[in-house]
């Protein structure tokens, strides 16, 4: 099954009509993955046996006509726990870790009869913007195999962009869904903080992390998010509020909607080609009947600075659990208990993870806490206030998802500060916990550009409404990648 | 400005060990990152509260009723070393001290 020319609705119709069984669908999906993986490297693990067993169960009963997810193979980022299937967070630390339960999002997908087909590559512990910090492999961008797929959910994004799966799950702490969605020319949403349970998501920065969805179309995205949303008593930060019917918002009508463009998001750091595509996108939104005005989010320019202090501080605490004692890597060289801690951590974690643990530990350490962690938390409040002010008058904020299109593999790994600046347009939504989505906004020199749509807390409907109207008006989601470049 | 001695101290707090060359490189990179974050000092935050979380939740508690957990034998499957249902680690003290 080549998913470049299918969506949930079209495959579902074949399943309901009996032209295709879930077992056939899984077999065809595995064949497609096998064909494309040598070029793309989007998966760390393929659960062939598990997927076929699940498909047999789906085939044992009629396909429910109102369940678009029945029998659908889905890719899962490898920092989301899957019962009995190795989950590594792309780290040597967890190379042999087999979870004994499913993440709530995985459990919810399985409850809808969706099929867990495999685990997608990512930056180690989701720390990175290119998926190059993975301890295991480098994922390539299907639009140009010499470019990065973005990160940290680069495998989840590339798998959908390559047509290996119809949808996948990722996580987004500072842009890790939206940036790879933009780089791969697909749809990616980070829902409101609290919309989706984080139970079973390997924690990076707990006040920022959210699980979200990649797909080729907005409608498919809304369907999958619907399935994984909702309160979970296992995650006390998940919101105990009703989940609306997201697909009901997909009627193409955005007349009278009030949209803001933050001038800081269109500043000189944004590449001219990207800026031009976004200006065209804004004209499209106007032509569809929305009003679009320029506003200011003045503190957004500090987003990267506060992010690296807050996210690294939270990470240094979260990753202290990896001590070589109860699970995960233990150094064979460890002779004493202190050795178990120090050698296991030093050998098990990669460079980027260690750098962030160091940065976070420093920012939290005695004598520096006020200057760094506290100061960052105060500026975070100002970033949130900027959004509150704009959302008093507007329904949405739009702009580019990323300052540039996908960059070359290997280009930025040696220079952390340049790499970090790549996230400047996506981080503010995490800081404020807002829902934000990237939708395809055309190509520059053959590489995709993403339009970012940021909504009010728990108003994913408005985000989807505008994303859908834009998608239908432009047809950019119909572009397919060329798989050019790469080693012969 | 962060120096190599401070970085070594932070490494000890982090339970991480680095070679001398790694420590040099890390000091340089952390100094660059700190230089970037020092821009925050330009922002006037007098009287601004600290945000540590975006959903203003209070503590959430459940009824104090025992619930079945995961079986110990299942959890132990991921343990690097174990014996008799217990996690095994190197001795904390050697025999002379004990």
TrEMBL record, chain A:
Gene Ontology CC: glutamyl-tRNA(Gln) amidotransferase complex
Keyword annotations of the record: ATP-binding, Ligase, Nucleotide-binding, Protein biosynthesis
Residue stretches making up the Amidase domain: 25-463
Molecular-function GO terms, alphabetical: ATP binding; glutaminyl-tRNA synthase (glutamine-hydrolyzing) activity
Catalytic activity: L-glutamyl-tRNA(Gln) + L-glutamine + ATP + H2O = L-glutaminyl-tRNA(Gln) + L-glutamate + ADP + phosphate + H(+)
InterPro entries to which the protein is assigned, alphabetical: Amidase (IPR000120), Amidase_CS (IPR020556), Amidase_dom (IPR023631), AS_sf (IPR036928), GatA (IPR004412)
Function: Allows the formation of correctly charged Gln-tRNA(Gln) through the transamidation of misacylated Glu-tRNA(Gln) in organisms which lack glutaminyl-tRNA synthetase. The reaction takes place in the presence of glutamine and ATP through an activated gamma-phospho-Glu-tRNA(Gln).
Protein name: Glutamyl-tRNA(Gln) amidotransferase subunit A
Species annotation: Latilactobacillus graminis DSM 20719
Origin organism lineage: Bacteria, Bacillati, Bacillota, Bacilli, Lactobacillales
UniProtKB/TrEMBL annotation, chain B:
GO biological process, one term: translation
Catalytic reactions of this protein: L-aspartyl-tRNA(Asn) + L-glutamine + ATP + H2O = L-asparaginyl-tRNA(Asn) + L-glutamate + ADP + phosphate + 2 H(+); L-glutamyl-tRNA(Gln) + L-glutamine + ATP + H2O = L-glutaminyl-tRNA(Gln) + L-glutamate + ADP + phosphate + H(+)
One protein family per Pfam: GatC
Entries under InterPro entries matching the protein: Asp/Glu-ADT_sf_sub_c, GatC
Coiled coil region boundaries: 16-43
An MF annotation (GO) of this entry: glutaminyl-tRNA synthase (glutamine-hydrolyzing) activity
Similarity-based family: Belongs to the GatC family.
Subunit organization: Heterotrimer of A, B and C subunits.
Described purpose of this protein according to its UniProt entry: Allows the formation of correctly charged Asn-tRNA(Asn) or Gln-tRNA(Gln) through the transamidation of misacylated Asp-tRNA(Asn) or Glu-tRNA(Gln) in organisms which lack either or both of asparaginyl-tRNA or glutaminyl-tRNA synthetases. The reaction takes place in the presence of glutamine and ATP through an activated phospho-Asp-tRNA(Asn) or phospho-Glu-tRNA(Gln).
Protein name, as recorded: Aspartyl/glutamyl-tRNA(Asn/Gln) amidotransferase subunit C
Species classification: Bacteria, Bacillati, Bacillota, Bacilli, Lactobacillales
Gene name linked to the record: gatC
